[in-house]
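The protein record quoted for completeness.
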Amino acid sequence: MQPIPIVGAAIPSYKLHTHLEWILSAQRDLEIQDAVDPHCLDGNWRERTQLIRGMLAGYTGRLGIHGPFHGLDIGCGDPAIQAVVQRRLLQGLEFAGQIGAKQMVVHSPFMNFGTGFSAVTPKSVAHIIEHARHTLAPVVTLASQIGCTLVIETIQDLNPRVLREFVLAFESPWVQHSIDVGHVRIGMTRGGASITEWIRQNGDILRHVHLQDTDGTYDWHHRLGLGDINFAAIFAELQQLPHQPRIILEMRNHDDIAASWQYLVERGLAK
């Protein structure tokens, strides 16, 4: 059984100074969010990475980034779109490499999957996996070269088996799994598996968890305690794993990070 985990947070660099003392106090997992912004990647992002490295002097924790995702469908079969997606994700990895990040979050390709818009069949799953593997091929190659693992995050996914099949299709240690507990909670309202079931089925490939709260009606990214997610059950499952994934507070309002952390500490779930 794993010890009580030390949780970290997802933070854009312009907010990093606000939480830096807390991050450094326990060398907490840190996820830099700047690369999700296309204006950042089209601007002087190298200068920004220099600033981030300077701010993180003395940091020895596990550093990652959230990769680009706005408008990017890694499961698209159009070669022209695939080229755009590749370019953005490669830029994200370059950003990660410049700050020394060893993990990058990538969104799942199974959007609107299992709804009336897109039925789940063996053929449809195979097509999406084929397209996404082609799109991500150079991205996985670069990830392996710089030592940065891609973690595929649950978005509109309902079935742990389907996303597991996608991750394992790469046959690469540089492609692993991420769970956003709020996204999964919303999926539960559409018949999807529970958060604890996702952990049970995919725990062996789980390397990253986004914590937020919601009641399942919207992707609120509220501070913990404002929704109905059972965090005690989630942490109990995580403690059964033979390894400790990065556990990241991802708040819509970054000022809610401290209160969310305190919520977990008061319940003996995290440090």
The domain at 8-266 is CATH 3.20.20.150 (TIM Barrel). The mean pLDDT is 95.
